[in-house]
Design brief:
Number of domains: 1
Number of helices: 11
Shape: globular
Mean pLDDT: 81
Radius of gyration: 18 Å
Structural class: alpha/beta
Strand order of the largest sheet: 4-1-5-6
Helix content: 40-55%
Low-confidence stretches: 53-59, 70-75
Length: 282
């Protein structure tokens, strides 16, 4: 893959950035919630959303919802509507795709099309709505956090404990540390996703027979893929996309990145405060 030798501007991603001119991703999350509300005003869409929440094993229910949204009500042109509302967040996608060498164009994650970014934004919001209640009710909850959010100026002291690496809180400005504190306060055990593959993690969790919920934090292409896998496995999942994709996979080296901590807190909900963060063995 051709790597850009010029450092990105603050919070610029290789393909997308949710951070607006005010330096915050709050407007994006507010906008995607309003957009989802508007398309779910259609009764038929609401019914499909409700049934998808009742039957978590039926992954196709969500696809039915997305198909219905495109064919009913005022949102027959879903993609143009998404492009109008959120195209400013994905303006780098096409340039990135055109710069890829031929050998990288087979990679569906790296070469993800702009329309797939836009529909993934909506799908993440809908999956959060479908899974949030069952996630909050789960007895055991774990978060899979990306190591690209760590403090790049600090010597990370995280160590393997349970499913994967666990933050030791060595840097006060580290976003992994900030997220870990929030998650533990809400009864969610945070892990830095480094060594384990998601399929193996899901297989192990399902074998335990406990009600398990997952929080995912990743760039949009990785997050949507992981959330789909959880959903197919019948595990309630909620997810927060990174503010941009700024890691070595995209740029050839790591650049500082952020995630919207307010959105994370909103999804976790105040009612989870009474639960303890339970470590999960591999």
């Amino acid at each position: 893959m051709t790597m850009n030798t010029v450092p990105p501007r603050p919070f610029e991603g290789k393909t997308y950035s949710l951070v607006g001119p005010d330096g915050s991703s709050d407007p994006y999350f507010q906008a995607i919630q309003v957009f989802a509300d508007s398309i779910l005003e259609d009764t038929k869409s609401k019914n499909i959303l409700d049934s998808a929440g009742d039957n978590s094993l039926c992954h196709n229910r969500l696809q039915s919802l997305l198909s219905t949204i495109q064919t009913v009500g005022n949102f027959s042109n879903l993609l143009p509507s998404l492009r109008t509302k959120f195209g400013s967040y994905t303006r780098n996608v096409q340039h990135h795709r055109e710069s890829l060498p031929f050998r990288m164009r087979w990679n569906k994650t790296i070469n993800m099309q702009e329309e797939r970014y836009l529909t993934a934004m909506l799908e993440i919001e809908l999956m959060n709505r479908i899974g949030v209640d069952r996630f909050r009710a789960a007895k055991v909850r774990a978060a899979l956090l990306p190591h690209c959010l760590r403090d790049l100026s600090a010597d990370c002291r995280s160590h393997v404990s349970g499913l994967d690496y666990v933050c030791k809180g060595c840097s006060a400005v580290c976003n992994v540390n900030k997220m870990s504190k929030i998650l533990r306060r809400h009864g969610v055990m945070p892990y830095i996703w480094m060594n384990r593959d998601l399929r193996g993690i899901l297989r192990g969790l399902l074998r335990r027979g406990q009600t398990v919920g997952i929080v995912g934090v990743a760039c949009i292409p990785e997050l949507i893929r992981g959330m789909r896998r959880c959903r197919k496995a019948g595990i309630p999942v909620i997810g927060v996309p990174l503010d941009a994709n700024r890691c070595r996979r995209w740029w050839g080296q790591f650049y500082p990145n952020t995630v919207n901590l307010g959105e994370l807190e909103r999804l976790l909900g105040a009612e989870t405060l009474l639960h303890a963060a339970v470590p999960i063995s591999p």
